[in-house]
Specification:
Layout lengths: L36 H24 L6 H23 L14 H14 L4 H7 L7 H8 L9 H8 L2 H13 L1 H11 L3 H12 L8 E2 H10 L4 H17 L8 E2 L12 H7 L15 H14 L15 H7 L3 H17 L1
Antiparallel strand pairs: 1-2
Helix pairs in contact: 1-2, 6-15, 7-9, 7-15, 8-13, 9-15, 10-11, 11-12, 12-13, 14-15
Length: 344
């Protein structure tokens, strides 16, 4: 979550404002969606009804129909069959989204069935969805999340770049100097930039968020506003669980599904998270080396140019807009990083 002095709560870089929120952006390499058995049954009954109807019409005719009539009948049958085959080959989708919690349980049961068809184990599904319910607090947060970005740059920056945060950032730059040098050597992103993001997102790891990530994502996936986006994020969260990187009980973060000390959405976690401390797991919640190196990997993957400037108008400023599309946030991040760099 973006750490703001005062009563403001803001989504982080991988929230609904990012380019990866678009529907269908990570479809490559995913298995085709299986058609649930109940849908197969209903579609078969539709097809059989069409065929029975035509058979009864044919049997009621007296004598043999003329050849042109038979050709027209066969053509009509072929068109109907083609239409039905088209329906049968379309991917099945989860139950309808909703604006209240009334249909959430039905939607969730359907989602779990489709997730199992895509390869999620029953053990993963049972663990991830244990106790999950529709969360009205998440919907309330989602409706009013962007107000803080309407502040002027001066007011926004003043709330975020506080004297205490600057002092803490300078202290952490010195404490983790060796780690940050190794990260920069590998990814080309300097320490002041990483520490600035760390500070803005979670107060340097002090407040990663307490919302249950799976429940959060399930609620937002069921909600009609951005169902496709958050359904994909929910599937990616399950992949993290199934891979063994993180158990569901420890998967907690901000209200929009962000995870870890620099707030990665599950899709970005899968793409950019790295095991920099070498313990065999990509742990962005408990491991500062993993969190900072993964952030550097994200920035490099978004076009970061080693050695180039990051102020507005310089080559790396657009990369900050990949992290968070709010220009006022990007300018504040650039200013914070500059102040920390001057202190080294």
């Amino acid at each position: 979550m973006l750490q703001v002095s005062g009563p403001f709560l803001v989504q982080s870089h991988q929230s609904v404002v990012t380019r990866r929120a678009q529907s269908g952006r990570r479809s490559e390499g995913r298995a085709a969606v299986a058609i649930p058995q109940k849908r197969m049954r209903s579609r078969f009954l539709i097809w059989r009804a069409f065929r029975s109807h035509d058979s009864m019409r044919a049997e009621s005719a007296l004598g043999s129909a003329p050849a042109p009539c038979k050709r027209r009948t066969r053509m009509r049958d072929s068109l109907r069959l083609g239409f039905l085959l088209l329906i049968l080959t379309q991917p099945a989708h989860a139950a309808s989204c909703g604006d209240t919690g009334a249909g959430f349980d039905v939607w969730l049961a359907d989602f779990k069935q489709e997730a199992a068809a895509k390869g999620m184990s029953q053990r993963t599904l049972d663990a991830a969805f244990d106790g999950v319910s529709y969360d009205r607090k998440i919907i309330s947060r989602d409706r009013g999340a962007q107000r803080v970005f309407k502040l002027s740059f001066e007011k926004f920056a003043a709330r975020l770049i506080t004297p205490s945060r600057l002092s803490r950032g300078r202290e952490l730059l010195q404490r983790h100097a060796d780690l940050l040098r190794r990260i920069e050597a590998r990814y080309g992103v300097p320490g002041p930039v990483l520490v600035s993001i760390w500070g803005l997102e979670t107060g340097f790891g002090a407040d990663n968020g307490t919302f249950k990530t799976v429940q959060t994502l399930a609620t937002l996936a069921y909600d009609c506003r951005r169902a496709a986006q958050f359904t994909q994020e929910l599937e990616d969260a399950l992949t993290i669980v199934q891979s063994g990187d993180m158990p569901p009980a420890r998967m907690r973060g901000d209200w929009a599904g962000e995870i870890g000390q620099t707030q990665f959405m599950p899709s970005s976690y899968l793409k950019y998270a790295v095991d920099f401390d070498g313990d065999g797991r990509r742990d962005l919640i408990r491991s500062a080396p993993d969190a900072l190196a993964s952030t550097a990997n994200f920035l490099r993957g978004s076009g970061w140019r080693a050695g180039a400037g990051w102020a507005e108008g310089e080559p790396n400023f657009p990369v900050f807009l990949e992290w968070n599309q709010s220009r006022v946030y990007a300018k504040t991040l650039a200013l914070f990083a500059t102040k920390l760099a001057e202190a080294r």
